[in-house]
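Budget justification note: compute hours in this period were largely spent on complex prediction jobs such as the one shown. Inputs:
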Amino acid sequence: MKRRPPPTLRRIALEFLALAALHYALLHLLARARLLEHLLAPGPGSRIALAITAGFLLLRLFLIVFGVGWLAARLWLLLSRPRAA
Amino acid sequence: MTSPRLPSPGSCLRFAVAACLFVAISATVPRWWCGRDGHRWFEGDATLAAAHAREVAAIVARGVSDEDFTSASDLFRNEWLFGTYQMGAIALLQICKASPEHAAEFLPAAERALDELLSPRIRAFDAKKWGEDPLETLETSDKGHAAYLGYMNIALGLHRELAPVSRFAAMHDRVSAALARRLATARHGLLETYPRELYPVDNAAVLGSLLLHARTTGAGHEAVTTPMLDRFRRAWRDPASGLLFQSLDPHDGGPLDDPRASGTTLAAMLLGHGEEEVSRGLYESARATCAGSLLGFGFVREHPFGRSGPGDIDSGPLIFGISPSATGFLMAPARRFGDREQFVAMHRTAHLMGAPVARDGRRGYVTGGPLGNALLLAIFTTPPSRSASSP
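Corresponding output:
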């Protein structure tokens, strides 16, 4: 079985920045929408709004609560990787 | 086929360090990051308050209609419309009082919100439920109108504190007199919100507003406020948890719904405008039986730990029993009574799930909408008690 190559510093940084950019874009996009009403009392036309909101909040939860620790752990694993002889 | 290789001791150590890094950073950095604004709000940062107040003033200036809300219920849409102007007025008036240098900017917006509250358009939901207009029948009716009159009267009282003589003063006196007169003859000692619907939390607004009226004008409402305060100490609270019963039976005055945190925390917030002893008691009960935290992010359960039950429009959608409304409301008495740790813990959650964003010199919460932003500003700017000390 072919082993997946370990992530490079460039890939780790790009993945993290992509998530942060997506969060930033959604934050400013959703700032123009009204969401609380959909969350408190979903109506018949609330499905798409609720799905986008749930996706945004999950992304935000991951980025803020776990993102930095996840980034640090990945960087540590990269930097402490044994060098090939 | 090759057997998987066991990790070398060095490899185990690498992964153990990675796991420790992940846990240590996740337990400390988000807590610090999301808590920064909580400390600023707690300390009354005028710049932060002004930026959020500009968002609320813009909402008031733009105007809100029931079409801005998505609930299928006509009543809920119009209650939220009313709540947006009511909480907006309270928030802006609290800022004018705390930072007089901002009064010129925000007092006109607060007065516009008061004008809206008094308008036939905003009070129509209450008139429809009762079959009579709440303001045109102030002197002639004995019906409760507890929510519309009680919540609105708090906003009028806060305006009276800032401007003792204004076009709102006479209405403040009339509403207060009507509430006191109706309470004096009210069955079970509290006013109905709608026909045959009794909610202690709405009566906390009535009582808070009467005590505020007494403080600002010297009017004597003790004949009705003293026995009502006593009922808030015991009769309307669950003996085990100290939480306020969410609703009462209009026939016998007994509990009709569970003791719940959303009503208790909102009552502590509303009553705090008029007095502190009972408000503090409600806050301490909710904190002791329903509040918790995970990684420094605070939450409030709708039902006490060890009990479960459904949520509703008052609690917001319950996730693992946690009430978004109660989690927000608890910050108001926490700030009033100087409980920084609890305030900041709850604010971390509000920051995480509310997603604040700044643009055009204003600052608002993405998931807040008109009502959420007005409400959060009213909560964050709750004035500290003069005798504030951490419970």
